[in-house]
Amino acid sequence: MRAIAMNGNTQRKLIREAAAVAKNAYAPYSKFRVGAALLAANGEIFTGCNVENASYGLTICAERAAVVAAVAAGARKFKGLAVVAGGKKPAYPCGACLQVLAEFCGPDFPVVLAGVGNPKAAVEFRLKDLLPKTFRLGKSKRGG
Predict the structure, then answer these.
(1) What global pTM score does this model have?
(2) Distance between CA 51 and CA 28 in Å, rounded?
(3) Over the stretch 51-103, which tens digit does the pLDDT of each residue have?
(4) 97 close to 125: Cβ distance less than 8 angstroms
């Protein structure tokens, strides 16, 4: 576990936003609600929740939903992400979500994880800790 590097107030705000949007998740199969709050470089917060599908491969994770919402609004640079998942323990983002984040964020991008039942026990990681080997096409200034 790392020391929290993101400003405490910012972290708490992102966790609150992620927990609030997790309530909107569509999770009839797993009953596991997830919310994500993505902080853009301009200070705007974009949220997303998981949306399940009977064809499981079509399920959209909260992290990717937040990134898609941000990109649709024109944001391309981000400062941090909070993910709040059902239960007391934090849940780690899947590989697909981490790879999507790596498309826009550098290796030191902060990712805060919390359980909805225990948001004060949040843990912070860097993207490079969660996805040490990102996929890159050609030369890139970002990623690890």
Answers:
(1) 0.90
(2) 9
(3) 999 999 999 999 999 999 999 999 999 999 999 998 888 999 999 999 999 99
(4) no
| 78 Cβ neighbours under 8 A, 6+ residues apart | 38, 39, 40, 41, 70, 104, 105, 109
Task: Look at the block and give the residue holding tokens 């708490």.
Answer: 12
Helix residue spans in the chain (DSSP H): 8-22, 62-72, 95-104, 127-130
Which is the catalytic residue, given 17, 52, 63, 124?
63
Closest by Cα among 57, 66, 103 to 84 = 66
Domains detected in the chain: 8-130 (3.40.140.10)
63 is annotated as an active-site residue: yes
